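Work Package 4 report. The design task specified in the project plan requires that, given a folded chain encoded as structure tokens, an amino acid be chosen for each position. We show below one input record used in the internal validation round.
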């Protein structure tokens, strides 16, 4: 049986500082590249020699994906369906800065609700975009590794399994970790492995 492996990109300096990235194109530095290389080796052992690697267009994802692609001897394919949700005017800020400037929206977000800020990507839109991309790339014969982002992966999984976007059933996926999903004969998606490789 084939599978979808949903891999969150390795950690960036922005991540280490607690800054929201969203659509900002932040690169991987040395620590992130080392984390990506270590994860790529473990994923390569899981998927074997015949797998496809598809990535968000953002540099932190493509750099992570390229570590795996080089091990498998394939080219990374970029698909905008897997880019991160936009965080609007919050991008580049820390949660402390956000709480100080937008206290009500900060509280809404931490209750799992949508903040009312300029440029925020709605959960419904992101879930539909990522879910469509995952269904499109699934191949019953060849495993596909999708390198994406925390919110995008979380919402895409909820879309596949048919849960509301407000659900916290799967929580956050750590940087460099991955989920494994399979499609049953009944057409139902199953999360077979959760947050593998988490530090």
């Amino acid at each position: 049986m084939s599978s979808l492996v949903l891999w969150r990109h390795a950690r960036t300096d922005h991540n280490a500082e607690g800054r929201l990235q969203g659509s900002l194109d932040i690169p991987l530095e040395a620590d992130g590249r080392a984390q990506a290389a270590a994860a790529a080796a473990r994923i390569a052992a899981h998927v074997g020699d015949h797998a496809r690697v598809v990535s968000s267009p953002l540099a932190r994802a493509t750099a992570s994906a390229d570590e795996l692609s080089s091990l498998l001897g394939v080219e990374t394919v970029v698909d905008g369906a897997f880019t991160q949700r936009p965080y609007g005017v919050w991008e580049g800020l820390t949660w402390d800065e956000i709480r100080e400037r937008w206290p009500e929206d900060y509280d809404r977000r931490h209750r799992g609700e949508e903040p009312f800020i300029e440029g925020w990507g709605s959960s419904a839109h992101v879930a539909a975009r990522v879910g469509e991309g995952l269904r499109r790339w699934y191949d019953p014969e060849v495993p596909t590794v999708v390198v994406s982002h925390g919110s995008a992966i979380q919402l895409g999984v909820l879309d596949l399994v048919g849960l509301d976007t407000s659900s916290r059933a799967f929580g956050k996926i750590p940087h460099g970790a991955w989920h494994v999903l399979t499609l049953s004969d009944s057409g139902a998606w199953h999360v077979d492995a959760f947050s593998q490789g988490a530090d």
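Strands lie at 4-8, 52-55, 76-78, 144-148, 178-183, 189-196. Validation will be extended to a larger panel in the next phase.
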